[in-house]
Amino acid sequence: MTSYQLTLCAGLALAGASVAQVSPNFLLSLSGVETTASGSGGTVLQKIFPNEIAFVNFGTCSTLSAEKWMPRTCSHVMAGDENADGNYYNAGIFGDINAILPFRHSMGTGLDENQRTVFWSVASPMGGAVSAQPFRSGDVARIVSNGIGHGQVEHFMRQEQFNIALGRAPGAPLDIDAIAWQANYGVWFSINNNRNANTACGPMLVRDGDVLCIPPSALAYTADGRIAAVMPNSAVVVHTEAQMDIYTANANVANNMGGCVTQAVDVEGLEIDLFGPVTTISGCAGMVITVPTLLFSTETGTGASILTTAAGGLIQPTPCGLAGQYCGAGVTLGNQLGLSIPAGPGIASYVTGLGFSYAQTHVLEADMPVMTTSATGAPAGASNIHYNSPFGINVVLIELVPAFVPPAVVGLPFSPTCFPDLYAPGIFGYAVVAGGFGTIPMPALPVGFTGKVLFQSVGLGAGVFEFSTPTVVDVL
Length: 476
Ligand SMILES: [Ca+2]
Ligand SMILES: [Ca+2]
Prior knowledge:
Mean pLDDT: 93
Distance between the termini: 57 Å
Low-confidence stretches: 1-17
Largest sheet: 7 strands, mixed
Bound molecules: calcium ion
Number of helices: 4
């Protein structure tokens, strides 16, 4: 084997977070469609889909509610017409989001995450009609505007790099379904299907319930802190599926029907707990691996429980209580993460992606993202735009654009805590609204109009403009 020199980017080695910069709040994704505990003001924002990301802010426990943070309609605008069908709307984009990496938080910056900084993994590949780089099930990536154009996939870590670290053919099929990272601890991940691999400990079957580490010494970084290269055969199974089963059983958590969860089956979400105990193990091939305490979720954890490897396996505590009900004491409802409780048992979903984060929920969505009105026109208010803003005064921009939305204006010195880019093609109208949840009517559409109507809100933050996520209505 040729020598494979890897050096840690000097600027990145200091990325360990201080305790003051650790958020107790979560960005997360769920396996099924769930409803926010608040009802989100009766808006369409109350439904959280498996290809979306929600934010759980544990600030006020009596009104705890997960809220939609990255609507799929925001992803549609970021991605463009990725499947080349003429529409931005694609209800099933990504299949599911099955891993989340809040990058700013993982870098230890203490800054709010936005939809351009977070990385995620998909269950089904994104269409390749716009991006020069693919977004596949084995990638951990995000969608940005770069020098090539809008809708470009930017990888934290590529499917080929995961395969190389696993000692597999770079092009082999792979589905990453859990990711956590800190420069001091390396990449921690789990896969979605059992796969043959050749890890640092030799040939083996890696299971979907195993938790693996690629240690810091095997990672090289880009200047902006993404993975540039990995050392071949460097991945190590740190916690086997059997060990994850033991952590899970020891946590003694109930599922959404009140049954005791005794097995992990498939590890679905991972995050590093910087407050937890740290151990070291020998990872084969002379490697010493520093093992942090890990938060994890499992396919068996219906009711959306979150567990931890601390003390041999516990239910994860949050500022509003445990993230799951004890077995024998009832069912895990889902309300511990701010999700609405259905009649009868708890919610059917488990947590599919998980990361600590600071964030603001500043979003827009249309109740009719596709309108077939070119033959008839549509009166004002035939449909509505639903919003959620943390800011007291907001200007919702209404923009008519041609068949393809022009790229956003990037690099503005605005929106430090929200969506960073402004879409500003021809502004057709605007509405001034207060903060919180609300709706504005869609403007009238004349007979014969086809194209896109784009909405983005500008909130007045602390002396600076803060942009909402954008949304597009396809008018056919
Ligand atoms: Ca499309
Ligand atoms: Ca995936």
